Amino acid sequence: MIKQLLIEWAVKQRWKKMQVNEDYDVEAFLEKIPIYFDSEKAANRKLTVVYEIHDSGKNNGVWTVSINEGKCTLSKGDSEQYDTKLYMTAETYRRILSGRLDFVRLAYSTGAVRFFGNTLGHRELNHYLTFPKNAGVAAL
User: Fold this and answer.
1) How many Å apart are CA 50 and CA 30, to the nearest integer?
2) CATH number, domain at 117?
3) Does residue 136 have a pLDDT over 90?
């Protein structure tokens, strides 16, 4: 009986740690993509990456990042034609942002992020971004 109670308590504590801070706003981070975008790196490139965030309450949503000939735009909503679509929770995205979840090695291989289309599109997008020293993010 005590063992079962301890297990339940431990699971609840772990669940609390996994919950996204209520102040955390996925869209606020996604809005930084056009700001950190380096048009010289993507001068003649077309790329569309869709972020679909689920199971996250107020952070649920779909955003599309479009790169076309040196210009980057972020729009709310899905795109029928995309190079890469990322499907994940807000907590998974927060861990990628902070560098606590290695996107290349862990997020994809463990299934924390589901990909549709080209699995390298997110890496390519991050290649076109230049983060200032005080950005506080490892990847977007």
Assistant:
1) 11
2) 3.30.1050.10
3) no
- The total of structural domains in the chain comes to 1
Give residues with Cβ within 8 angstroms of 84, minimum separation 6: 48, 49, 50, 115, 116, 117, 118, 119, 120, 121, 122, 125
Amino acid 79 reads: S
- Following CA atoms 88, 54, 66, 79 in sequence, which dihedral angle do they give, to the nearest 10 degrees? 120
CA torsion through residues 85, 76, 96, 48, sign = positive
Q: What is the pTM of this model?
A: 0.79
Backbone φ and ψ for 28, nearest 5 degrees, come out as -60, -35
Task: Give the pair of three-digit tokens for residue 89.
Answer: 């929770």
